Amino acid sequence: MFKKQFVKMKEEINMACVQIKGTRQEVVEMLQLF
């Protein structure tokens, strides 16, 4: 169940990155906060 939530969260982050044209490095740094 948690894995399903994590995948959904990852997809949302990816979509947000596309919108703000963020770099992949920024995504990695965000994920490290969890």
List keywords for this structure.
34 residues; mainly alpha; 2 helices; flat; DUF3911
What's the structural blueprint in terms of helices and strands?
Elements lengths: L1 H19 L3 H9 L2
Whole-Å distance between the termini? 17 Å
Uncertain stretches: none
Total number of beta strands: 0
Strand coverage percent: under 5%
Helix content: over 70%
Mean pLDDT, rounded to whole units? 76
Radius of gyration: 10 Å
Task: Report the structural category.
Answer: mainly alpha
- What's the total helix number? 2
Largest sheet: none
Q: How many domain modules?
A: 1
Pfam family, one: DUF3911
Write structural notes for this entry.
It is built from 2 helices and no strands. By secondary structure, it is mainly alpha-helical. It has one domain (2-32). Helix content is 82%, strand content 0%.
